[in-house]
Amino acid sequence: MKKLINKPEDVLADALKGVSEAHPELRVDHQHRVIYRAQPKDHGKVALISGGGSGHEPLHGGFVGVGMLDAACCGEVFTSPTPDQMVEATTVVDQGAGVLHIVKNYTGDVMNFEMAGEMAAADSGVRVETVVTDDDVAVQDSTWTAGRRGVGVTVLLEKIVGAAAEEGRDLDAVLDLSKRINAQGRSMGMALTSCTVPAAGKPTFDLPEDQMEMGVGIHGEPGRKRVPLAGAAEIAEQLVDPILSDLDFQGGPSIVMLSGLGGTPLIELYLLYGEVAVLLEKAGVQVARTLVGDYITSLDMAGASVTVLKADDEILRLWDAPVKTAGLRWGL
Amino acid sequence: MKKLINKPEDVLADALKGVSEAHPELRVDHQHRVIYRAQPKDHGKVALISGGGSGHEPLHGGFVGVGMLDAACCGEVFTSPTPDQMVEATTVVDQGAGVLHIVKNYTGDVMNFEMAGEMAAADSGVRVETVVTDDDVAVQDSTWTAGRRGVGVTVLLEKIVGAAAEEGRDLDAVLDLSKRINAQGRSMGMALTSCTVPAAGKPTFDLPEDQMEMGVGIHGEPGRKRVPLAGAAEIAEQLVDPILSDLDFQGGPSIVMLSGLGGTPLIELYLLYGEVAVLLEKAGVQVARTLVGDYITSLDMAGASVTVLKADDEILRLWDAPVKTAGLRWGL
Amino acid sequence: MTESVSVATLVDWLSSFRDAVHEQGTYLTELDSAIGDADHGANLIRGMDAVMGAVAGEVSTVGSAGDLLKKVGMTLVTSVGGASGPLYGTFFLRAATATGDATSLDAAAVLAMLRAGLEGIVARGKAEAGDKTMYDALAPGLDAFASALESGRDVLGAAEAAADAAADGRDATEPLIALKGRASYLGERSVGHIDPGAASSALLLRALADALAAAG
Amino acid sequence: MTESVSVATLVDWLSSFRDAVHEQGTYLTELDSAIGDADHGANLIRGMDAVMGAVAGEVSTVGSAGDLLKKVGMTLVTSVGGASGPLYGTFFLRAATATGDATSLDAAAVLAMLRAGLEGIVARGKAEAGDKTMYDALAPGLDAFASALESGRDVLGAAEAAADAAADGRDATEPLIALKGRASYLGERSVGHIDPGAASSALLLRALADALAAAG
Ligand SMILES: Nc1ncnc2c1ncn2[C@@H]1O[C@H](COP(=O)(O)OP(=O)(O)O)[C@@H](O)[C@H]1O
Ligand SMILES: Nc1ncnc2c1ncn2[C@@H]1O[C@H](COP(=O)(O)OP(=O)(O)O)[C@@H](O)[C@H]1O
Ligand SMILES: [Mg+2]
Ligand SMILES: [Mg+2]
Ligand SMILES: [Mg+2]
Ligand SMILES: [Mg+2]
Fold this sequence. Notes:
The complex is a heterotetramer, with two copies of chain A and two copies of chain C.
Chain A (H helix, E strand, L loop, with lengths): L10 H12 L3 E4 L4 E4 L9 E8 L16 E7 L5 H11 L5 E6 L2 H18 L3 E6 L19 H14 L4 H13 L1 E7 L19 E4 L10 E4 L3 H13 L8 E8 L5 H17 L3 E8 L9 E8 L2 H8 L2 E2 L4 E2 L2
Parallel strand pairs in A: 3-4, 3-5, 5-6, 10-11
Antiparallel strand pairs in A: 1-2, 2-4, 7-8, 7-12, 8-9, 10-12, 13-14
Chain C lengths: L4 E2 H29 L4 H15 L3 H4 L3 H15 L4 H16 L4 E2 L1 H19 L9 H16 L4 H18 L23 H20 L1
The structure holds adenosine-5'-diphosphate (2 copies) and magnesium ion (4 copies).
């Protein structure tokens, strides 16, 4: 295993040191492993908390700041944070207007946030609402299973709903909007290589030179199927088709994100986006805003995911609103 | 070779398609392979042009926009662009105030920009000045060799000098500042893996699991020496020590960039930055601004480089000035 | 073999489970690599190391079984994360409620403790038989424990039967399609692999038998 | 073998060089992988394909040698980039100036053409003997060309001597420490590898000999 780390068990603690050194505009609670804005708004804003396993950077710590999150709870690599972290963060950020927990749909994340919500309500009486994102079309949905994974839409949701909270909307409105954003977004990912979890010390799976994994999430899991390696145009099709056949994006503007999975350089992401844009145009999807880069990653996995969000004028306005975070910044 | 590409020979053309689709605020001349601001300033600003081989994204195309470059000339992967591209860009961006060419010190880049300067002067009479960056302490300097490579300082220079040009300084002042920035910056890089040039189809070099390359540049070349793989703390030392022993950074603020080389995820970059920060602090370097992420890359190489720039109040003010590019953005 | 299980023996159980997850950590992570995210071993090692740190003084201060198990549950909840943290955490928290103030447990109390724990896992995770989770090792394990007691075996014999049945349950997860947890994202591709949580649960029951045998 | 080299033969030279860089492209890139950036093969393939596209009509329209070589030089300058683009480009631009309006070249004119080209490379790149660059193949090649003419051999014989000497010069770059170009960044580590530009330059002179032989 080749990584810029010290000991595998110290990866999270050490990385958080770097975050606090690099970002004076953030405050890192190293004991609870929570990243806060150094200068929280001082009254009445609905607070947004997200969190999850580490290894998906900039998600979520890189999205803490004006116009997005108030706090991010950092779990061990690929492991949901624990309820006490969330309870601590919830108590710290609440300004009386309540707290929205933004949770990606994974059994672990959902259960830990659930316990945190129960504990926070019992301990402090803070009103906590939760939105669970589940936008990954690679996963067959069914009431009998764990449902779809929460992936790329989480990034767009944190930006858009963060702007709404910054404007002063109340918790019901914020919750409502967040559920609508999740319902209107779809994602699909693919991998050229596995990633290596530091504590495991070797790649999670082997992938021959002539194969790729379609329908991967962000935890280095194998995808829905292993298929022959293809060119970017063909890969774009395999990513875009399942998204478009799952939801109708006609008749309004869309926001599109193409995120790298951590090990793929920007030149390839732009190249793939060129192919994605052609397909979206052909299908009549009107792309109003675009994000290309590493936004929701899976350690050092090579590959990419596409997220399409059905927007409207209001959503675009919130998207364009100023944001000042380590991972997404404009207007400030 | 596993890459999100179509044919190796089309990588640059295809990637530029994605850039123009993703960035309506940029105008891409696909014939000349030049990236421009879609809305150039309309009078009297000194124009900044940079360029170089592709595969270093976001450098340089990702730094075109308000507060940084006016145009970027894109060469083939790891291959300097050709003089005709630079002549075209120079002619297009000149607004009568002259043009600064920002060139990284590589024989190919220097010669091609030199020819372009000769041709532009002869053809159009545009006044062209050139700054050549050469900040890589890994390379022994000597009048008998090609000198040091231009690496990370180029990013900082494009930002700071871009702000100065945006303020309306004349070409002499802009040239002067750019030379000062280059003189005050030092960089050092290391690689955990090779990268794969698409046309070559396989890794440029083999690096055993227990070895790393110290003193690499950004073209997938082997470094100055191959050393045993080490932890992040030890790697930070091997990067920071040669920088600090090459230039005295005491007695004023510094700007520090830790850039990934393309294949290393953000969590590792932050982790390494934590170790770098400790060493800089110990050495009495006062870090005033920090940039951690992929800014100057080497395709899919895993590794990182550190750049330290000796600043002052004026430089920090220019650093903080608004910038709106795909790769670096604040205040706008 | 005495029929009464002391708090010290419960600590031995935990210690034995800690040793087992250290020994089998790589194996658990390999199982999780195939159908999950390659962290189950690291998660349980982190959790059981934290548990043994937290209960270090417990035996000498002679707290109740409930106090011990509650501390174990809270420590797992706050140190593991992921799916297994809340699940194993809830197991011990519910087990604590079942044992309450008792400082020694007879065989029936041990069964009640385990059953309360499993009910906690079901309440938290909604798993059913055949979903390819830790439930599929624990449930047959507990059934075997109960049957063994009914047929007159002592607590050690029951625990041994439970460990054997849990191991069988673990192996029986191999051909299943996962319907819960992150293995479910793989659909058909989850077939042919043992569930990592079932494997760790089988270790948990084996550790109980080992601790009882040693106490014997 | 006629002593006069036609423009058509010069086109054959270019065509033969194009074929050579296609055949040896992987080898050139491998050399460049060891001490450079793994693109020398791709650079020359792109450049010579562009050249052959640009001069396609040249033979039938019977332009001068100068016109042809200028077009070659400009095409290389505008299609190759990197270090080799300006260097080979300047080689042909200077060669064009040397041949001027001529539509056929005698042996001395061929030597003058090559010498002008090499001077262009030196003017552009400042390489000296032993810097481990294309100079180290071209310079001994041209010296051998001159000596062969002096000792009475014809232009084909001279070109063959040049190709042989250039190949020797190429091989002699192996033990050198690079002082120019990106191989110089490697310092001592550049020792033990043949310079890629020296290898392509040896192909350029071999291609000339081949074209002359075919014309013979
Ligand atoms: N809903 C559930 N009910 C019971 N057990 C579950 C459930 N979801 C997951 N598990 C168990 O958790 C195990 C995975 O634990 P672990 O790898 O530590 O967490 P994560 O899946 O979050 O990475 C699975 O092998 C399975 O046995
Ligand atoms: N200053 C120079 N003078 C002469 N030849 C040079 C000089 N610098 C580099 N070269 C030649 O250029 C070759 C490399 O060409 P190429 O790989 O196409 O360009 P780049 O180094 O820009 O990638 C070297 O092998 C060397 O022979
Ligand atoms: Mg996990
Ligand atoms: Mg090159
Ligand atoms: Mg797991
Ligand atoms: Mg090269």
